[in-house]
Amino acid sequence: MWSSCNPCGGLLWAPVPQRWQKSGTHLEHLVSRFCLDSEMALDGMDSSRMLVISPCELSAYTQRWDVPFS
User: Fold this and answer.
1) H-helix or E-strand spanning residue 31
2) pTM (2 decimals)?
């Protein structure tokens, strides 16, 4: 995927690969320093989650990921 993250919440499509690092249980975007977040959609249904980037919060359970990295 070729894009970069906009700290205001959207994705900007540009020929720049995304770079992420694992920081504890969080996945942090190296350019924006925001974290990958599983946010509930506006309809409020738990089944309507979507991926967004948000300011990193250690206490946010929606930003915790269990991903094996080598």
Assistant:
1) none
2) 0.63
Please report, for residues 14, 16, 18, 39, 41, the alpha-carbon distance to residue 48 in angstroms, rounded to integers and kept in the order given.
Answer: 28, 29, 25, 9, 5
Pairing of strands 20-23, 11-17: unpaired
Q: Give CA separation, 4 vs 10, 19, 30, in Å.
A: 9, 9, 10
**Phi and psi at residue 61, in whole multiples of 5°?**
-70, -20
Dump pLDDT digits (tens) for 9-38. 555 555 567 899 998 999 999 999 999 998
